[in-house]
Amino acid sequence: MKRTLYLLLIGFLVIIASSCSKKENEFESAKAKVKNERKDRFLGNYNREFNDLHDLHLTAALQNGVQPIALRSDTIILQDSLLRLPDDLELFKLYDLTHSIPFLVPSAAKLLTDISINFRDSLYRKDLPLYKLNVTSVTRTEEDLSKLVKRNMNASDNSAHRYGTTFDVSWKRFDKIDSDTINTLSQDQLKLILAQVLFDLKSQERCYIKHERNQACFHITVR
């Protein structure tokens, strides 16, 4: 009788252990699912999700870019390695490039185009009014950089912008495509949509991104 009770007790404990193990596995699976879901969409923390440091940008720039350009006139020497960006498209606009020139290596130019197209498509799918992005900084020559460093003490003299791989997209300035459309979006709404586009491309390991608060831009380097 005692043996029978003992065996029943052992069996009961095995069932409990099995049940606990199953629940633990289900819990871990649920945690992994939540973690993956978080990776699949941007949840609004700009500083956490877009915090790739300068060293990462610089390493990628050195691997994928051209040699630093001394003078603006020297771009003609690199015409086979750099693409000139148009000043104004429906996809994006070059905004007030006082300290940089509109040239990028082909992979960076494609990245900028993809960002712009994906941003437009995202607005279109949501049936929202269309806006174009503003690119506020592109490639800086040594001449541009020396002037910028004198003007802005926070500017780096070893910037990733020197290599044709890096550009800044404003999260504050967006140009409405159809000015006659009554519906408008706020800066915060547009920034969030842009961030989701950037988050997707960053998750695909196509770029490094830093959320710049003082400069009101996303600092982006192609990988």
Please provide a written account of the structure.
It contains 6 helices and 7 strands. With 223 residues, the chain is of the alpha+beta class. It has 2 domains: 1-40; 51-222, 2-Layer Sandwich (Muramoyl-pentapeptide Carboxypeptidase, domain 2), CATH 3.30.1380. The chain has a 5-stranded mixed sheet.
Topology:
Blueprint: H1 2-40, H2 46-49, H3 54-64, E1 83-84, E2 92-94, E3 103-104, H4 106-125, E4 131-137, H5 142-151, E5 166-176, H6 187-203, E6 207-212, E7 217-222
Parallel strand pairs: 2-4
Antiparallel strand pairs: 1-3, 4-5, 5-7, 6-7
Helix pairs in contact: 4-6
- β-strand percent reads 15-25%
Most strands sheet:
5 strands, mixed
CATH topology of the largest domain: Muramoyl-pentapeptide Carboxypeptidase, domain 2
Helix and strand string, N-terminal first?
Answer: HHHEEEHEHEHEE
The CATH architecture assignment of the largest domain turns out to be 2-Layer Sandwich
pLDDT below 50 for ≥5 consecutive residues: which ranges? 5-10, 12-17, 30-38
Q: How many DSSP E strands?
A: 7
How many structural domains does the protein architecture include? 2
Mean pLDDT: 85
Structural class: alpha+beta
- The helix fraction, in percent, is 40-55%
CATH C-level class of the largest domain is Alpha Beta
Whole-angstrom Rg? 25 Å
Tally of alpha and pi helices: 6
